[in-house]
Amino acid sequence: NRLAKSYGPKAVFRDLSFQVERGQRLVVIGLNGAGKTTLLRTLLDLTPLDAGTVTLGDRVRVGYYAQENEGLDYTGTVLAEATGALPDDAKRVRSVLGRFLFNGDRVFQQVGTLSGGEKTRLALAKLVLAGPNLLVLDEPTTHLDATSRNIIGEALGSYNGTILAVTHDVE
Fold it and tell me: Within 13 Å and on the Cβ side, how many CA atoms surround 7?
């Protein structure tokens, strides 16, 4: 409600108010440098606001995908990395990995050998496995080819929770 953030004399946003209800999707599209990441970071209290208030519901569990910061352990395997998000359900882990194009022997590939797009897909799969009911996604399509974008789109399309995403990609 009435959010404001500036860096020196440059106002990134001011008097910004909106509400996102359970199950809704909100995508903010803008040019690089327009303040999209700053908006997400202020909503998550990672960057302080100059004014305004952010209120999350009392049962909201946030999963955050930070642009260029997947937080992956490059020394482990895809399967080990994903299992860390949901250690007690191997069947669901394999199912979600498959939806994100990690099947067969690909689950035994070392994370450090993955391409940028594959790392993005793995980070997003981990978010889904962790079970948040609010996904906050900062440029989730960066580094993805057309096939990977479609896979991510399908996976997020079947996600039952709320999604707040920012992108500069209109496709």
Answer: 8
